[in-house]
Every structure is written in C-alpha cells, then in structure tokens.
Structure prediction request, 362 residues.
Amino acid sequence: MTGPLVSVDTLYITLTDELPAFLSQSLLQCKSLPTLPSVALKVLDIARSSSSTLSDYAKAIEHDPALTLRLIALANSAYYTRSAPPIQTCIEAMQRLGINATLPVILGFSLFQEAPNRHQAWQRTITAALVARYLAEQLCPDESGSVFTQALLQDIGILALQAAYPEEADRLYTDTSLSHAEITQAEQRCFGCDHTLVGAWLASKWGMSNHAAMAIRQSHESFLVSDKALLCLRLSGPIADAWLSNNPASQLAALLYQLKTVSYADTLQLDEVLYNVQHQANLIANVMNMNTPIEVDSTALLAEAHQLLFQHTLTLGSQLEAQKQALISLRYPNDNTSPKERIRRDASLDAKRSGLVRKHKK
Prediction:
C-alpha cells in the first residue's frame, strides 16, 4: 500500500465497503463477534515496539486483575515451577513465562476459549507467530515484535466468520483435508472474500493501527515483496502449515522452491528458526493445555526437504530437455543432424533474426 495512511475511521469505512454487502451486514449485526479487551489491545500496542520492557507489559496487564491472576497461576503451575519458589507478581510471571508465551496466553484466553476447533486453529496461530518472530530477528530485528503480533492476528477473520455463519464455517473449517490456501479459496466461493479482509476489518473495528490492519489484509499474498517484515509475515503461515503437516519435508521443499525467486531468502537460517519454534511451541502447548507438537529434528527435516527439492529440479530439467528434443524432431522430421548441432543452428538463426549478429560489410 502506497501513499499517506488514512485515519483509522476512514480505513474502517473503506474495509467495510470492500466486504460483500450481505457479509458486512451480518458481521455488524452479529452479537457474538470476537472482541478484545482494552488491556489486550494495549499489550499488542506495546509489543509493536522493539524497545518495550517487561515492566511496560506488566503495568498494562495489571489493569486486568483476572488476567493477572491467570498469568501468575500459569507461572506457578507444575510445568514451570519444578523446584523454583512460587511467584506473586505479574512481572515475575512474565519473567518466568517469557513474552513468546505471555502474548499467546493473553490473546488465547480473550479470543479462543469459546472458538470451535480452537486447539487446531490456535496451534497454527502460535506456530506462525513464533516463525514470524524468528524470521524477523534474522531479517529485520527492530520489527520482530510487531511482526509477531501481526502473525498472531493474521487469521482472526476466521473467528468472525465462525461467529456470523456458524453452520457454513463448521463445514468449511472442520475439513482437515483442505490446505490453508484451499480454505481461502473456499471462503471466496462461500462469502465473496477471504478471512484476511474480514480480519483487517475486525482489527480496524477494534481500533488497532492502520499498519496492523493492512498487514493482516496482505498477510497471505505473494512472497515477491521488498518489505522484509511483510515477507516474514507472509512466510509464517506456510512454514507453520508445513511444520504441522503429516508430510513436512515435502511441503518445505515446495516452499524452498518458491523462495528461489526471493533475493535475500538465502540469508534465512530456517534450521535455526524451526529449532526455536519446536522449543517454544512445546512450552506454550503446555501452558495452553493443548496437544504438544510432535518432536521433529529440524536439521534432518530441512536436509530431507533440500534433497526433495534437488530431485524435483532434476526431474524438471529432464522434462524440459525431453520437450526440447520433441520440438526439434517436429521441426526437422527428416533431418539426421545431431540434436546438439540442431540446437546450435537454431540459436545462430535466432541471433541473426534478432539483429544481435553484426553483418560484415563487403
């Protein structure tokens, strides 16, 4: 998006106009539409700054006594305490849980407690957010906090669609055979738009910044983008899908193939990203009382993905060569010249036709 940013109210109106009329009407009339308490919004705003401290978070969270007690209880749970002494303050709880666990807990209790299939949806959300943070720490460390929160919220539109159209959403989102990309296509057919537009609209309705709302709107688009923070966000979902799939190596190989066109993608240390995601996802799964992800050797997984990509590249090369030979045979059916000589001759003719070969003066 280029040009000056419009006001939040103007953006909200613009996004409302972009929604199909029947959908915007249903969302506006929906009494169970997801909401974020002011404390959660304040925490998300704090997370956008790379200079935020634990004290900043604690001061915001302490305005909600119930949420503060919940965080302290989690930090004192058996998973975290072991032989450590119990803690009594919000900042101590955050020190023990860490930011990566605290933010998902806050949003999880605010948004996902009553959501259908919350474990599946929340596991993808957390994994994508962790991926986004670790990618951003490599490519744009100053923006890692804001990228993390944007990735946490990139699929909130699904919650709004589930609230407004529970029956349709139940059929759509319980089909585990659909990939995330296929889900967005199905949403287009069913609702006339996908959940990224609905999510941006919802974020704007909550009063979140234009930047955050538009990041959600653009979160599922092409990897061909110069903005490194936006690339981290767009990569986070597909990497999370691959990580959580039954065949992660194959999906990662397909992702690596797409990344060949991204100029600075070779600087990414995906093995380091996946290693950190594994560790943090285990912690958060225990905190949120969710299924713990299957242990995966990230180094071995990436090695297998690169091997699959290499095999795929060889197969493509063989197919292209076979097609080239078939075209040559069709062009010269009675020519006994060797294939290499035909290629040289065709290349020479093409050069002459294009004017690249200088004609000698007589």
